[in-house]
Amino acid sequence: MSTLHLIRVTNSAHSGANNSIALLNTNDVVVFIDDGIYNINQLILNDFIEVIGKESIYFIDEHAKARAIQAPSNISAINMAKLLTIALSCTRTITWQ
Questions:
Q1: DSSP type of residue 28
Q2: What is the pLDDT of residues 66-77, one digit of tens each?
Q3: What is the domain extent for residue 31?
Q4: How many domains does the chain have?
Q5: What are the φ/ψ torsions at residue 32 (nearest 5 degrees)?
Q6: Residue 69 class from Cβ within 10 Å (0-12 exposed, 13-18 middle, 19+ buried)?
Q7: Is the torsion defined by CA of 25, 51, 22, 82 positive or negative?
Q8: What is the DSSP letter of 5?
Q9: How do residues 5-41 score in pLDDT, each as one tens digit?
Q10: Residue 80 phi, psi (nearest 5)
Q11: Which contacts qualify for 71-79: CB closer than 8 Å, 24 or more apart?
Q12: Of 37, 57, 36, nearest to 46 (Cα)?
């Protein structure tokens, strides 16, 4: 049973990103979207990687480009079609906002 965690807020703006880490299981997936994109260049990214591994962490490429965010090379950019595929493969979805 895997959960898709959609991170929509920055760690500095809200505790949602921090709270999500406590609920992660090793088979979960994290996707940074909207203003949650700002987390991909913050130290909190290492916390997500430590729990679920970089292979299960993604960000929406269009959202990063819209915010002029340079993405780290250790997580993957996806588009909205791939997000839909991921969402359909998970048992449930939690949006952190």
A1: -
A2: 999 998 999 999
A3: 3-96
A4: 1
A5: -90, 125
A6: middle
A7: negative
A8: E
A9: 999 988 765 566 778 888 899 999 999 999 999 999 9
A10: -65, -30
A11: 71/40, 71/41, 72/40, 72/41, 72/45, 74/49, 75/40, 75/45, 75/49, 78/31
A12: 57
Q: Which residue has the tokens 């949602």?
A: 16
Residue 87, both tokens: 């969402």
Q: Token pair for residue 1?
A: 């049973």
CATH number at residue 8: 3.40.1260.10
- Provide the residue count of the chain: 97
Show the 3-state SS of 35-58. Answer: HHHHHHHCCHHHHHHHHHCHHHEE
Letter for the amino acid at 29?
V
